[in-house]
Specification:
By secondary structure, this protein is an alpha+beta fold. Helix content is 24%, strand content 38%. It is built from nine helices and 19 strands. The relative contact order is 0.14.
Length: 354
């Protein structure tokens, strides 16, 4: 058996396993995926005698994280052939993929789980709840509202303007989101159109007021809705949707800083991280945090004793709980008091499907 990445010319070989593993995907959607998404992704497979027994797709996205831009992978298409299940094939692929991402200096990766329990052993945790919005005004006779369809065939200026509006809307509300540019939006339009979907620009008094995307072969459902109150309203609380995992701990920590109201300019913590899958993340570090960024320096237990007076607190934490905390998804209870001054990321929006 061999674990390796498929070359560009080989990627079509994973089509049959996708069809078997994800029968809910229409032929048109799969055709879109194989034509568009495999242009720049990496497909890791476990094969024997030229037969693919298991696969994992690494789909790259440019992720805005505050004022930083990171290239992060969205893990999709994780599947094993029926004759290869319960043999640890998925684990081999996930461990290899995470190790490779760590070697590349990727700060984090993310996925949409079929079941939370599948990915907990790999250090993943929920970082994003999918909000549910509706457009109550669209159901009235409000003559100040109009809609205009945006197509993948539209001129570049039309698509670029729509992408720019979406980026601005996201940046006002979230610190982490996939950058919308012309290429991203054209792909999204093709993805939606593969299942009879459309993207409509909502205009109010002649100006862009939002975008509504719907798709579905048998029943149309909302794919996205970007707008502002009072035009939109939240239907109910969001549902856990996307799990994430810190991959390169030193690179991720660069996005974390102290809160503005912190009474000192800098703090140093002794942090001991548990990460069973990525050896480079596991161990003890001095974690120095200021109002702009933070950095890690690996240390030994003896060094902790030498600098005890300089330490603001001691943190013992698993990579999963560290991920949840620093993505603003929940603060662990047993942190030292000074950790209250650490500013986690505030606002995550990752609504990608593939």
């Amino acid at each position: 058996m061999e674990v390796r990445y498929l070359s560009s010319s080989e990627k079509e070989r994973c089509r049959s396993l996708w069809e078997d593993a994800f029968p809910e995907d229409s032929p048109a959607f799969l055709e879109y995926y194989m034509k568009e998404k495999t242009k720049d992704n990496q497909i890791l497979v476990l094969e024997e005698d030229r037969k693919i027994l298991s696969m994992l797709h690494r789909n790259p996205y440019d992720i805005c994280v505050g004022d930083r831009m990171w290239r992060c992978d969205y893990i999709v298409g994780v599947a094993t052939a029926k004759e290869g299940r319960r043999r640890g094939y998925m684990r081999r692929l996930m461990e290899r993929a995470l190790s490779d991402m760590r070697a590349e200096g990727m700060p984090f990766c993310f996925l949409m789980p079929a079941a939370e329990a599948i990915y907990l052993p790999f250090g993943f945790t929920y970082i994003f709840d999918q909000p549910k919005w509706e457009l109550p005004e669209m159901r009235t006779q409000d003559n100040t509202l109009a809609v205009r369809r945006v197509s993948s065939l539209d001129a570049g200026a039309v698509v670029e303007r729509a992408a720019g509006w979406m980026n601005a809307w996201l940046r006002q509300r979230y610190e982490v989101f996939a950058k919308r540019d012309t290429e991203y939006l054209r792909r999204l339009l093709k993805e939606m159109e593969s299942e009879n979907g459309i993207l409509e620009e909502i205009r109010k008094n002649g100006k862009t007021a939002g975008f509504l995307g719907t798709w579905g072969l048998e029943k149309q459902e909302q794919r996205l809705l970007f707008s502002k109150p009072p035009l939109i309203r939240e239907k109910d609380g969001g549902e856990p949707a996307v799990m994430g995992r810190i991959v390169s701990l030193p690179d991720f920590m660069k996005a974390i800083r102290l809160k503005e109201e912190t009474p000192v300019k800098c703090m140093t913590f002794y942090i001991k991280v548990e990460d069973e899958l990525l050896e480079e993340n596991q161990g003890a570090f001095y974690w120095t945090v200021d109002r702009h960024s933070s950095a890690l320096e690996q240390v030994s237990a003896g060094e902790q004793a030498e600098r005890k007076g300089e330490i603001s607190g001691v943190i013992n934490i698993h990579i999963r709980r560290l991920t949840a905390w620093l993505f603003g998804y929940g603060m662990p209870e047993e942190l030292p008091a000074a950790a209250e001054f650490i500013r986690p990321i505030q606002g995550v929006f990752l609504d990608e499907v593939v």
